[in-house]
Specification:
11 helices; alpha/beta; 25% strand; 346 residues; globular; nine-stranded mixed beta sheet
């Protein structure tokens, strides 16, 4: 069965979405939509899509899609997600899912009322090296994790392709922090509490471009999550997530260059976990581009009733709460208990 989709938002990263959908068996993008008519027409032309719209309501009414891929910025998410559910479509929403837990919960509730799945486009958990690391942990190669570090540091010019990033007041935590917190949940389960510090180091930007968060997991493990958009390193590791996991039986290390190393008594085992560059992709974006395509194949399997959404909107409420709690911690200097934080939000 071919699932017909509508892409809303034809910006920089949406081109990766379109390439992924073109390769996803069982799905096709029937139309695209953007407030900027030139962007919508260019996307339709480049990907052989028959129809381009500038009004989402009109596109939904005329296309009646099976699914909607919302690839816009956060301010429009709730309106578009609720509109798509009202037209009977399943919805994929770009992250950050929402600017508040109240808006996020409203979208989850709308999906429940419509009886349609709601996905949040969290592609880091679909990256080949992170899945390989998760699989090794599942084998118990280090024992129970006691300490982990999840790190994303670079000075790649992300502002060139997405200039609005320099203008948002909540930047690093909402742009990459959400991804990293989702990685923590993917690898180690839920966190009990969180402490965070932020900095704004690059001149001329509105929001924070570095942060350091310390998490205490419900399992008892401690996880350090650090991110920087202003770290000079040659070669620049962008957009790799580097991870170290320590347990009683060994240490598992995902290092630059997509090398996975298992340190145990007697030696080190090493694996190359670099994904192939998609035919439409390019380095250094290939791990992200491959994960976008993997996520979209997963969406088709969910629509076919074969899998459950990973992550769903309901699951992502907890991830969004972590980012918002990190801002509160940075403002107050206090450690935030996450279950209590969620209960404080209406």
């Amino acid at each position: 069965m071919m699932r017909r989709g509508l892409l809303i938002g034809c910006g920089f990263f949406a081109r990766n979405h379109m390439h992924g959908w073109a390769a996803a068996e069982g799905a096709e993008i029937a139309a695209v939509c953007d407030l900027d008519e030139n962007k919508a027409k260019a996307m339709a032309r480049d990907f052989g899509v028959a129809q381009a719209f500038t009004d989402a309501e009109t596109a939904l009414r005329e296309i009646q899609p099976d699914f909607v891929d919302v690839a816009t910025t956060v301010a429009s998410h709730r309106m578009l997600v609720e509109m798509a559910f009202a037209h009977g479509a399943a919805v994929i929403c770009q992250k950050p899912f929402a600017g508040s837990l109240a808006d996020a919960q409203a979208m989850v509730d709308a999906g429940a009322r419509a009886g349609k799945p709601l996905f949040v486009h969290e592609n880091f958990r679909w990256q080949v090296p992170l899945i390989a690391l998760r699989d090794k942990l599942s084998e118990g190669v280090v024992g129970d994790p006691a300490f982990a570090r999840v790190s994303f540091r670079h000075r790649y010019d992300v502002y060139a392709g997405q200039p609005y990033l320099a203008e948002v007041e909540q930047f690093a935590l909402m742009d990459v922090g959400l991804h990293l917190f989702d990685v923590v949940r993917f690898l180690f389960g839920d966190s009990a509490d969180l402490h965070c510090r932020t900095q704004s180091r690059k001149p001329g930007i509105a929001g924070e471009d570095t942060f350091l968060a310390t998490l205490r997991q419900k399992s008892g493990a401690v996880v350090s999550v650090d991110c920087s958009f202003y770290t000079l390193e040659i070669p620049d590791p962008f957009p790799q997530t580097l991870i170290r996991v320590e347990g009683a039986d060994g240490t598992l290390d995902l290092t630059a260059g997509y090398q996975l190393n298992l340190h145990r008594a007697g030696g080190v085992d090493r694996w190359d976990v670099e994904p192939a560059v998609p035919g439409w992709g390019e380095k250094p974006w290939h791990a992200v581009q491959d994960s976008v395509a993997a996520f979209e194949r997963h969406v088709v399997r969910v629509l076919d009733g074969k899998e459950d959404p990973q992550p769903s909107g309901a699951h992502n409420l907890g991830t969004l709460a972590m980012a918002l709690a990190a801002y509160r911690s940075a403002e107050t200097g206090e450690t935030v208990t996450l279950d209590d934080f969620e209960e404080q939000v209406p």
